[in-house]
Amino acid sequence: MGTRPWVAACFLLPALVLLGALVVYPIGYSVYRSLFDASDGGFVGVDNYGEVFTDDRIRTALKNNVIWVVVAPSVATALGLIFAVLTERVRWGTAFKLVVFMPMAISMLAAGIIFRLVYEQEPDRGVANAVWVSVHDTFAGTSAFPGAHPRPDAGLAATAKGSYTTDAAVAAGMPLVAVKPSDVSGAGQAVPARAVPGKVTGTVWRDVVRGGGGTDGKIDPSENALKGVTVEAVKDGRTVASAKTSADGTFTLPAADVYKRQDWLGPSLVTPAIIGSYVWMWAGFAMVLIAAGLASVPRELMEAARVDGANEWQVFRRVTVPLLAPVLAVVMVTLMINVLKIFDLVYIIAPGNSLDNANVLALQLYQSSFGTDVNQGIGSAIAVLLLLLVAPVMLINIRRMRRERRR
Q1: d(CA 154, CA 176)
Q2: pTM of the model as a whole
Q3: What percent of the chain is predicted at pLDDT more than 90?
Q4: Of the candidates 200, 153, 144, 154, the residue with the CA atom closest to the CA atom of residue 174
Q5: Which part of the chain is the ABC transmembrane type-1 domain (predicted)?
Q6: 377-403 per-position pLDDT tens digit
Q7: What is the C-alpha separation between 144 and 226, in angstroms, rounded?
Q8: Count of CB atoms situated within 10 Å of the CB of 222
């Protein structure tokens, strides 16, 4: 370039020093540290790497990382592609893109706090459950017996939602009064529920004898069964089991010791729930990049396909997507590298009882290096493993960029 080599070296030296201090040295020291024990005093060779593949928590983290790499980039890229294509021809497309992209301005910490609240179990606080309950209540049928209620001395307390609860043992079931005769016309005779081992059984019936008489709280002859009444078992303020009464008024629920509840942040759903929050943040990023690539796609090719008789789906599948393949590859590779290092969302959103189930390698690296059971030898081994997992994706990206330059 017409200048002396030492001048170029002087300009490059500060960048090279920073690169060596912040990248090369940490990588080299991590590899070195991974060969020693927790106290850094004994050489253990590759034993720490063996521990990485035998420890249950680390294996769970590795499995979750695979799920993250497969699901999160794919879903975010697919949503970005759909948003970019659908908003291309509408007037308010720019405003929609702005709204979808806005979560990118939020830090992972803030997004984690937001979605920790979104996934709250109480519908009064958790948006996800509020929507779920609202949709259910919208399409659920009205009460089969409006106005029905127990006798004041029945031991059942009314709630603000119109239901009745008890935490005491119930001998026969739930006797109700104030049921219109027209609502039970044709109803069968109520029968006592049979005891079933490991189950909670009972009967819901109209505790009124035509013409008077009978014993309150006892199923008398000619008292009608109430079919279709929802009976729920509540534990710690949450419904853990429910059943509807049959034609003879009987119901069956699991015993309290076998109740199981599903929640958004429980062990089975915590990883999909956190992936959902990640997609909420990064779908806008994918949309913006894909929209930029879509703007450079030759319109003549699309119009030619339409002239040849292709419908919009065929144009999208056979013309738009192939032409956007380089952009889609960039988005996918970028998101794959990003999710391999995911830490903040998992650490903040997952509650303590589900943290091990939502564990990922970056979080396990932190816990092994700085948590309660510190072993920086294993932490360094996880860091090296994470680097090895990221390296192939980075090499693919570098090769793709070089091919793009040659074109």
Answers
A1: 9
A2: 0.68
A3: 22
A4: 154
A5: 62-397
A6: 998 999 999 999 888 888 887 887 787
A7: 9
A8: 12
Q: Which residue has the tokens 């490059």?
A: 12
**How big is the CA angle at 258 (ends 256 and 260), to the nearest 5 degrees?**
100
pLDDT tens for 196-255 read 776 778 888 777 776 666 677 778 777 878 888 888 777 666 677 778 888 888 888 775
Query: 214: which DSSP letter?
Result: S
CB burial class (10 A; 0-12, 13-18, 19+) of residue 306?
middle
β-pairing, 164-165 vs 173-176, is unpaired
Domains and CATH numbers, the chain: 36-108+266-406 (1.10.3720.10), 157-258 (no CATH)
For residues 112 and 277, is the Cβ–Cβ distance under 8 A?
A: yes
Report the distance separating Cα 128 and Cα 277, nearest Å. 12
- What is the per-residue pLDDT across 342-364, written as a single tens digit (0 to 9) for each? 998 999 999 888 888 999 999 99
pLDDT of residue 142: 52
Here the tokens at position 114 are 């937001």
**Helices within 87-126 (DSSP H only):** 93-101, 108-118
**Helix, strand or coil for residue 234?**
strand
